[in-house]
Amino acid sequence: MSGFDFDWLKERVDIEACPLTSKRVTEWYYNFDLLTPKQAREVALLLVKAMPLDYVKVNFIVAPAIGGIVPAYFVGEYIDRPVVTVDKEGYIRGKKFEPGSTYLIVDDVVSTYGQVEKCLDIFREYKHLGTIAYIYRGVGDMRGDTIVLDRREPEHEWKSV
Q: What CATH fold (topology level) applies to the domain 7-151?
């Protein structure tokens, strides 16, 4: 889809040793920590090029920790918008904005929309324009406001053996 080869970031993992934020499991993990800063900047540019024009005009960007922080800052650099981070406990770090301001969620991987939903709840007084991510690993269709560079094998519900 994007022209970027995500396969070299793919690592086989022990399902029990690698819990995902989504609370799902997979034998494959995309290790975006392998990207150099230059590569991370290049992939972020691909995200920006894939965005509709109204996404570029947002007031700020929301980065769910941990995976969204690097792509969000590089996207923010390209479109010259501030970034607000949301940590795992839901604490917000960054500038405050006027109610009704517009924002974009930037993450590395979207699967269950759990992190997106958390951000939507936290930022409910603002207007969410969309979500962008490197890859989508959900079981069903993506939401209409989600832009990704690639679709990959879905994560699965945890089933004990």
A: Rossmann fold (3.40.50)
